[in-house]
Queue: 3 jobs
Job 1
Amino acid sequence: MATKANQEKEKRLETMRHSTSHVMAEAVLSMFPDAKFGIGPAIENGFYYDFDLPRPLSPDDLPVIESKMQAIIASDIPFIRKEVTREEAKQVFAAQPYKLELIDELSDEKVSLYRQGSFLDMCRGPHVKSSGEIKTFKLLNIAGAYWHGDEHRPMLQRIYGVAFDTDEALAEHLKRLEEAAKRDHRKLGRELDLFSIQDEFGPGLVLWHPKGAVIRRVIEDFWKEEHFKRGYDLVYTPHIARMDLWRTSGHLEFYKDYLYSPMDIEGQNYILKPMNCLGHIAIYKTKIRSYRDLPLRYAELGTVYRYERSGVLHGLSRVRGFTQDDAHIFCRPDQLEDEVVGVLDLALFMIDTFGFQNYQLLLSTRPDKYAGTVEIWEEATETLRRALERSGREYEIDPGEGVFYGPKIDIKFESALGKAWQGPTIQVDFNLPPRFDVNYIGEDGKEHSVVMVHRTVLGSMERFLATLLEHYGGAFPVWLAPVQARIIPVADRHLDYACQVEAELKNEGIRADVDARAERMNPKIRQAQLEKIPYMLVVGDKEVETKTISIRQRSGEQVAAQPLEQFKETVKSAIARRAIDAEGFGKPD
Ligand SMILES: [Zn+2]
Ligand SMILES: [Zn+2]
């Protein structure tokens, strides 16, 4: 809860964190008298500062900088504020090209400067009174950062740090970071051989390896099955379309920065689709639709391409090409509430099935710039609110955060580090139907504009895999695991039986393989453990003789030898139930 005391504490921490960045800059200046300074803001839990230095920093530099910072803090140096004119500021920072640029961007006539010790910075503040007020901090890492986030500008060196009130809070945070690093989907994706993103192939473009593709197929099959059950029709639409369509839709105007350059085909400009909406509208418009035909729900696992700067790309969660689990609902105004309830129900069912517990529902309302009239906004926002009430779940209002074309409901997941990830979204659209004349014939025999809803219930396949990987730390529940059972023959003479078991399991739709390497048993178990395979089936003399298997679970628990039939039934049931935690066998007594 954001109480007043909490807000004050956050403000105080922010001031301390930002002041720590000045202290770090002073320490760096003492090491590199010719250092050029970028910016050094406070961020969540800490701060950074961007430097232009004569040599690249290495992790070994961090403890040196830290100890210089400790000395500055120990001497309790005051932060002194001074106001000067822009001209004076330009003279003061004559040797600091980045600061000069910042001064030129300022609109104020007066510029405030802060000095502590030998370091002088241009800054709005506020700051702590003196460096002794900085309680505890740690420098984390060094990263490259383009000046102004622009890849055409120089690459600066950014040092990240965290700062807290107490040593305990710092220790707790570092522990969480360590846990998050273990769960980082980029690291797990590499270790589990799920996907790769290769610079030579193209940044932000995801290659799904066989094991990642298995997980994706399981998710997609489940997704399609649920959509059929809930009255959706599956469609497919092309990856490119004439550019004129995107002019009519308003994308060229509102969305220009995300679009790739057009390609010329027989004198006509085409672009890669940034969204699937227009294909679905085109299908809708192939017939005259009557009020009795509605609602129509078109679903597509549609791959879209959006330009993102290379600096903001991040593993699977920020990419340049991704597959949305998209759908568009075309309905009458009087059907909107039930449709939104239906989507919410589906989204929450998905979230529960995949085992997420920490998420937040948000209702985003009208922003400053919007399409349509205030009246239709109010009405649709009310409809979304009623749908949320009917879902019985708690939600919060995100004022002014709707997209320009309509209000929306967002579901955000919380990651291991407490960071919010965009999950399902349900958006009402007042913009496209009139632009494309997406109409239906009403009971009155006249044409009316449909209500259009854009929605995804997982987000995108890429981001969803990232979220799943971090949520489960790579140990997927049985129904999602790329390999569900690994058969481990104790010696070569057990290999025939192992292959027989594999064939029988595969025959039942269980994803099994055999570790046939000429290795001893323990390294094979270790390997399966590294791959986080739910079941290891060990077969030796006894198992061959009695036609059984001995089970070792990923958790390390052993299950006594049992007939293969029994194991098959247990696993099939866990898969059918989409069990999220149990591996099918209870804990031993
Ligand atoms: Zn400052
Ligand atoms: Zn759409």
Job 2
Amino acid sequence: MGRGILILYSTIDGHTRKICERLQQVLEGAGHRVTLASIADQPNLDLSPFDKIVIGASIRYGQHRPQVADFMNARRRELEGRPNAFFSVNVVARKPGKDTPATNPYVKKFLRQLSWRPREMAVFAGKIDYPKYDFWDRQVIRFIMWLTGGPTERDAVVDFTDWNKVEAFGRRVGEM
Ligand SMILES: Cc1cc2nc3c(=O)[nH]c(=O)nc-3n(C[C@H](O)[C@H](O)[C@H](O)COP(=O)(O)O)c2cc1C
């Protein structure tokens, strides 16, 4: 114990990592020691030195990376043995009524894949960044945005994240 807070993330385009960096700022500002690590890069990371653990993951085509639930189930005992938190990043969460852990469809589905329940949870709206996507991803996401009233211009870049909500979650993590 004593290494402070570990924030583990699963990201593709980097937005979840950016949210983790904001959490890190908030927590370091409150005097905590913070380490960031990617689940994909460090699936076997020793969790025992850390006092608290936060896991954040983004949604791609309806799910978080399978390695996220696999990691959380395999490491259940270590995670449950200390204060822990989970957050999801997806664009459906930009919609009122789908923006809390209890109402976001991906979080609800994800929790059914877990054999346990994280102590603190949050869901944040993500980012649309069409210039970053390959042709097919761009077409598919634009179509979904057209269906759901989101941005469809082919070069749109829209950050839906409520950064105040991220910071409030950071404070909750600091106190958990
Ligand atoms: C190929 C692709 C598929 C996506 N699928 C979904 C989806 O099924 N549901 C959703 O709410 N958001 C979806 N998103 C939006 C992402 O969750 C959002 O862009 C998020 O900010 C990505 O975070 P990351 O950069 O950490 O991977 C998708 C984005 C991309 C690029």
Job 3
Amino acid sequence: MPVYPLAAGYDLGADVAMLASNECCFAPLPEVVEAAAGALTGAHRYPDPAYAPLRRALADRYGIPPQRIALGNGSCDILLAAGEALLEPGAEVVYAWPAFSVYPHLAAASGARAIQVPLDDEDRHDLDQVATEVTVATRLVLICNPNNPTSTAVSLDAIDAFMRRIPSHVAVILDEAYCEFSLTLGDTYASLDLLRKYPNLVLLRTFSKVYGLAALRVGYALCGAEDFRIAVDQVRQPFYLNAAAQAAAVEALAHQDEVERRVTETIASRLAMEDAVRGLGLWVAQSDANFIWLHLPETVEEADVVAGLRSRGVLVRAGVALGRERSLRVTVGTDAENERFADALAAVLAG
Ligand SMILES: Cc1ncc(COP(=O)(O)O)c(C=O)c1O
């Protein structure tokens, strides 16, 4: 089993710019914290096994029936359940690489074969190659859009053209954990049009990023057909989503203005970070997410740069742990954190 590359530094205390895990730098709203705390008074009971209020809130927001919405203990939970439900020895799962570090677990846990398709020269998905790798053995395709760790997105027109090439019995999960931050994808309703066309498509999303609830673990999937939701529910324990997490997620959905504000601020900071990195003469991908992805020059060792940043109180992710050496993935943080990162990187590269 591949070991998930966990971020270090959670023990380092407050004076650290934690830019390693693509979290949201904004804390949950007081109303959201209050909703979660309120749920604790009923903690002697199991949570609602139908997750009805959250399912209903998502169904209302996205205009799809509640029975086509899968929920999970983070979207990772849904991903792993999809692997368990759909894969077995002899089957194949196809995805680009580097992409989200959890994807290799699906094949490893099920005995299926993982087909990893290299990204193109701009560190984007090469959907043409991904489609070429689909065979009679393929059960599942994973498309990370925007892609973690490289931050790039492919257009929905390209996804549409890709879906036309995929047989309808192959499940395609479009992992949209960062879609809210994407200018390429437009608004968060845009990809729902594809669900109407392709029953084998699943849009995987999370409350861990723009909604700022990473520690509570709530993910969801908007499914083109009900059978995906039934499949992932069948392989999991009944109570995978705790009551505080459910309550917080329902409340968070009621504050979309705040979500918009966060997105606007994050995109502005991201552009400033990209400029700062380019100003140092480095290549940086065109980001559609709440993090950036840069390549380091041949003249420096990735480990030295990561260590140098860490010694200056800045934690980032080394590309080697994410599938591509001599790269860094850096989360967009607060203005102060971003400046600290840019200054520290300049100092480290100056030697
Ligand atoms: C692309 C992608 N998908 C899914 C997830 C899982 O998020 P969670 O399990 O917190 O919902 C992450 C987390 O970093 C991610 O980067």
